[in-house]
């Protein structure tokens, strides 16, 4: 498997593992938050998967409509379904990455960005790691166990299967 595909295998695996971990925690863990993070655990996870869906839309050539507010908070079942769907979509997009040429439209905080395919891909990986780490920080700070989602854990789990 090429390194970029492997990085996205980790990305989708880590999100899936986090969702499964959260299923075993009390409801209070899903609404926990801490200073300096995006927000409550479930809201942060909903945002992570919502953003992944938007990144994929750009890469697939169907830019999403402009956002009008925060991502809606979804249930763990809805997020798990979205994660499985996105894992497939990432594999398809990455299989033709060399043929893509994404232009990001202008926003109030930046001009239009032509030839931004690599930017979108890098942002997706960074964004996912950032928010999964925030969720794990909130869990730990709130007295709950946090899962091991690092690349080493992914590699060992992949070798074990």
Contiguous helical run count: 6
From the helix content, strand content and strand pairing, which structural class follows? mainly alpha
CATH class value: Mainly Alpha
- On the 0 to 100 scale, the average pLDDT is 97
Estimate the helix proportion, in percent: 55-70%
Our estimate of the beta-strand percent is under 5%
Q: What's the CATH topology label? A: Four Helix Bundle (Hemerythrin (Met), subunit A)
Give me the strand/helix succession: HHHHHH
State Rg: 16 Å
| Shape annotation | globular
**What is the name of the CATH superfamily?**
dinb family like domain
Structure commentary:
The chain has one domain (about 5-160): Up-down Bundle (Four Helix Bundle (Hemerythrin (Met), subunit A)), CATH 1.20.120. The chain is about 60% helix and about 0% strand. The protein contains 6 helices and no strands. Helix 1 runs antiparallel to helix 4 (about 75-95), helix 3 (about 40-60) runs parallel beside helix 4 and helix 3 (about 40-60) packs antiparallel against helix 5. The chain is globular, with a radius of gyration of 16 Å.
